[in-house]
User: Fold this.
Amino acid sequence: MEHARKRSQLVNSLSRTGATEKILTAIQKVPRHLFVPEVQVNSAYVDTPLPIGHGQTISAPHMVALMCSLLELKEGHKVLEIGTGSGYNAAVMAELVGKGGRIYSIECLESLVRFAQENLKKAGCNNVDVIHRDGSLGYEQEAPYDRICVTACAPALPQSLTDQLKAGGLIVIPEGDTYQRLYLYRKGKDGSMTREDWGGVFFVPLVGRYGFNCVTQPEQFNP
Assistant:
């Protein structure tokens, strides 16, 4: 009951940020306390990023709401997420795309893959696949995607992700280094990309071949 009360308070506060009713409903349905380490449970419904170990964080709910809003997620969408973390953002997106949609979420840290899979199972979320591999390469096996959500900061948008996006699709991604900006990309029918700047942000770095800290042994990831 206490978690439900705090979750409702969080949703009420997010309603003042302009989040749509659909996104607020999705956040209301996803029990964020299941996606944080036990030591962070009491802070699960505070609108702030929280550490989940290994130098990674779970995004603040307002940032999850913003990224979902920019992606214009719809029922039946197939979505690629880069950076599973604890699985929370994937769970919210899974609510938005519904049973007919699918989230393919890529995580480079094997321990977080297991953590996210356990969390998603506890939350009853069954339309998310968590894959252990270099996220900067995308996941060509299920391409093309309607939407791509990157939850770690890249030096620039990897061409691999552009190539795996459908015409008319959207990508939201933070770019930069010490100074980061959140960008929304839209892919035209001719393959061209337009970009909108949505302001300054702070995310953990994207690790991989086309991110930071280049992966020297990509075979450590599952195909």
